[in-house]
Specification:
There is one protein chain. It is built from 5 helices and 26 strands. The longest helix has 18 residues. It is mainly β. The strands form 4 sheets. Strands 1, 3, 4, 6, 9, 10, 11 and 13 form an 8-stranded antiparallel β-sheet that branches. Strands 14, 16, 17, 19, 22, 23, 24 and 26 form an 8-stranded antiparallel β-sheet that branches. Strands 2-5-12-7-8 form a 5-stranded antiparallel β-sheet. The chain has 2 domains: 227 residues, Sandwich (Jelly Rolls); 199 residues, Exo-inulinase, domain 1 (Jelly Rolls).
Length: 437
Amino acid sequence: MKTRLAILIAATVIICRTPAAEPPAGFTAIFNGKDLTGWHGMDGVDPRKLSALSAEERSKKRASGLEDARKHWTVEREELVNDGHGLYLTTDKDYGDIEFLIDYKTVPLADSGIYLRGTPQVQIWDTTKEGGKWNIGADKGSGGLWNNSSGAAGKDPLVKADRPFGEWNSFRILQVGARTTVHLNGQLVVDHALLENLYDRKTPLIGRGPIQLQTHGGEIRWRNIFLREIPAPEANAILAKRGEDGFAPIFNGKDLNGWEGPIDGYEVTDGALRCKRGTGGTIYTREDYADFAVRLEFKLPPGGNNGLAIRYPRNPPKNHSDTAYWGMCELQVLDDGSPQFAKIDPRQAHSSAYGMVPAHRGYLRPTGEWNFQEVTVKGSTIRVELNGTVILDADLSKVTQFMADSPHPGKDRKSGAFGFAGHGDAVDFRNVRIRRI
């Protein structure tokens, strides 16, 4: 069933945009209809490897790529035309969260796609049996995240929405973090699926990267290429609405009713729960939770430090109330990009299961901006999605090595309270909602 957000998106899709259409309000044309300004040629390569090159090496690679692109990419009647060969046309600019509109028209036997953040891909097929690729999914239609793992959400499109050869097709792609939604010709074909990092499935999709138009065996034409960068507040709202059924607020935005612990160390300001500067301690819900998912927004000051208390015990052993050890875990809430935390143990980074399992770094918004985070706890497993990207997915029952060789006697707890573990910094939380599983 479509979510309310998906229905809203579908209602606003621009279908069959006319030639040389003007960008919709808020969008920018990233192809000028005349030449390759703003683009260069690039092969399919791990964008992290590109970023590891020196500035001089990147400049040389881009220059040679542009030379190749000019051999295989032309402009006709304000349409971008590829002859089916050469490097992929790649934006000079990198993008993060975006809404992207593009039309394409292809020919029999051609195979193409759109790379997002330099990573494959939103698939474009010859969907006919004669195309010879029904055995790998072409019969299901275009628009899927074909390079996702077998069985993963988004790999196969929800419906087949392709138009016959000779007709233009229109994509609308919404990407927040790794969460990717695709509409093809006004039909929802991918619904908030995570785009996997093909180049290293053990690490998440990068935070920013270029858009690439793939070339693969036959002429393809593109037009009306429009893009809008999504600001953080809108991105958070999109993530909050995804699958929101069943989540109930546990902080009312007014006071600390329903919370226990050293509540004098916290205050409520403009609908947000804040740890008072110079104070702290762990406050926690009056109810216990076994398996659950919690969603919240948080805002860090420079160098800010706090934590999420997971399955926190109400009556911990005397003088041993540290949630990182006596709860299932403490999930760090930390400005780990601050210079003062440059040399921390990886198991202390933001959203790490403190002292046990490190989270992937580099997905926090700048300090002073609100982040959206979802934590899912099932049995001994804990999963953290930050701003649309999964940065921790761990089974704590398998952890045998601990930071500083300090054991965590609470890691196997089956239930407990949810809370905030303040460490003296003015970290804000709001829109805290939980769902039992």
